[in-house]
User: Fold this.
Amino acid sequence: MISLEKDAGLWIVTIDRQDKANSLTPQMLEQLCEIAESAREAQALILTGAGRVFSAGADLEAARAGLATSPLWERLSGAIARLPGLTVAALNGTAAGGALGMVLACDLRLAVPEAKLFYPVMKLGFLPQPSDPVRLTALIGPARAKMILMAGQKIPVEEAQLWGLIDRLAPPDSLLAEARALCADTLGASPAHAAAIKAMIR
Assistant:
């Protein structure tokens, strides 16, 4: 349900549980953590989903059993954020809940025009993972972060792009190709050079 394709220095991770809107079980989340932690070997990493949804976040039954507040979410987003290479979220559809955390941890975010972004923690009675509001606010400012986290708004990607939450839109049939193209210069450089530039931006 989590696939990993390695193409030289490029790693492509795909969430594939289409019958459940690519929602994540504890086992899937653990696997994503392990991949992200081992991806320091990669020069670039693309995260995407199969089908028409990127991920609905935690599987509903697992969320009720405690997955919604699991430290695995923070472990995953932290591992992604610490990677020295370029990380790209290629959103083939909507990203919701905890899945938005891994998207926020990426360096760049592409999305198809039909996607929406939302994080219904207020409605569900959970707190977001600690780093998620920080990253969200850094990207779009406090008022817009409150629109998502407190007002529970589902943000269409066209609006999200205006806010700076999405960097570029791409049609479904070329989403992955565009994500790969964004990784080309990083893949052509030495890992040390790419890591040095990323460290300067941080």
